[in-house]
């Protein structure tokens, strides 16, 4: 047998033995927090970093047109909330209440409340950035109302919960 064939045979034998001794390992990039978050996900939550809800008042309304709330993850310990009360016309008093809710032990409860009023306006909107503890879901509940000439109309909004981790 020639020297080249012997060398080729030796290289093939070494290549096969090394190739068969390597065991491929598939590693996941999810952390323990991801696994915990997925287990707690219900129809009240979303996997997105943003949630929004808009409610339109009935077509025959005199004052209130709609209410809108939004929540968005800014960082591991910060979120942004936004609320809007929109009227059909200038109203003597417009209300906007934002209830930041936090999920603890499987249910949501109010974590912080922000209440605003304005006089003689057609809309009222507020946006806030809030530092929060991480590791749970947060959502925003909104109360929107408008009054004029003794008539007060109101609507409620509620976002899905987003995970802050």
From TrEMBL:
Signal peptide (UniProt feature, chain positions): 1-27
Keyword annotations: Signal
InterPro entries per record: DUF6147 (IPR046145)
Pfam families, sorted: DUF6147 (PF19644)
Protein name: Uncharacterized protein
Organism annotation: Blautia intestinalis
């Amino acid at each position: 047998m020639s020297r080249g064939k012997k060398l080729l045979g030796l290289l093939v034998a070494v290549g096969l033995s090394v190739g068969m001794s390597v065991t491929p390992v598939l590693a996941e990039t999810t952390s323990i927090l991801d696994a915990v978050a997925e287990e707690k996900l219900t129809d009240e939550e979303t996997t997105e970093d943003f949630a929004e809800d808009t409610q339109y008042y009935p077509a025959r309304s005199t004052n209130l047109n709609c209410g809108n709330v939004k929540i968005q993850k800014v960082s591991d310990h910060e979120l942004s909330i936004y609320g809007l009360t929109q009227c059909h016309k200038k109203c003597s008093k417009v209300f906007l209440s934002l209830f930041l809710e936090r999920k603890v032990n499987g249910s949501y409860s109010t974590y912080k409340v922000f209440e605003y009023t304005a006089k003689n306006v057609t809309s009222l909107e507020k946006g806030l950035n809030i530092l929060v503890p991480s590791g749970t879901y947060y959502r925003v509940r909104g109360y929107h109302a408008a009054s004029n000439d003794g008539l007060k109309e109101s609507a409620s909004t509620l976002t899905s919960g987003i995970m802050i981790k």
